Amino acid sequence: MIDADATERQWALPDEAATGALAVQLAAMLDDGLVLYLHGPLGAGKTSFARALLTAMGVGERVKSPTYSLVEGYETQDRSAWHLDLYRIADPGELEWLGLDSLADPSALVLVEWPERGAGALPAADMELQLSYAGDGRHALLRALSSRGYRLLQRMALMRGPHASP
Ligand SMILES: Nc1ncnc2c1ncn2[C@@H]1O[C@H](COP(=O)(O)OP(=O)(O)OP(=O)(O)O)[C@@H](O)[C@H]1O
Ligand SMILES: [Mg+2]
User: Fold this and answer.
1) CA of 146 to the centre of ligand 1 (A)
2) Model-level pTM greater than 0.85?
């Protein structure tokens, strides 16, 4: 029985392909801008997820990890997208010189790894994805934090993903 009212959904991700499949499922349901925070320890799969999502959204170039650049910008089929990795940020004030005003565009897709390091300097999240280690694979928890994120999560809940667990 699918609980369409839940504000969070969980998935078992046994391998990297499953991480990609979850990202593709999210991309298929995305019809608006979205600010998605990506949480999880080093190597949990945040970049893998972001790369699969951006590729599924029609980014025609190779998606790089923004480990050193901090931010990479892309154009998808229908919106601008930004991928940030704030691991190397010591203080959110360091983000000022990056000129992150464009992140405030409500139609943009904004993906942020290590968002806690940019607290106060980032747009509020519509959703957060928590990735954790589970044996050789990963566990994913997707939580809605705004009405826009909630609608998107509902659409995903109504779609039968191969790895969905109630
Ligand atoms: N569901 C999964 N099961 C097992 N391995 C996975 C899964 N998803 C991704 N991986 C692998 O885990 C590694 C994740 O690396 P990735 O760079 O995506 O992590 P990250 O969370 O972005 O790390 P960092 O915090 O260093 O940026 C990759 O080698 C990828 O192949
Ligand atoms: Mg990463």
Assistant:
1) 27
2) yes
pLDDT of residue 160: 59
What is the DSSP secondary-structure string of the chain?
A: ---TT-SEEEEEE-SHHHHHHHHHHHHHH--S-EEEEEE-STTSSHHHHHHHHHHHTT--S----TTTTSEEEEE-SSSEEEEEE-TT-SSGGGGGGG-GGGGG-TT-EEEEESGGGGTTTSPPPSEEEEEEEETTEEEEEEEE-SHHHHHHHHHHHHS--TTEE-
The correct CATH number of 18-89+105-160 out of 3.40.50.450, 3.20.20.70, 3.40.50.300, 3.40.50.2000 is: 3.40.50.300
Q: Tell me what the mean pLDDT of segment 58-84 comes to.
A: 91
pLDDT for res 97 = 78
Atom of ligand 1 nearest to the CA of 67: 27
Ligand 1 centroid–CA 156 distance in Å is 22
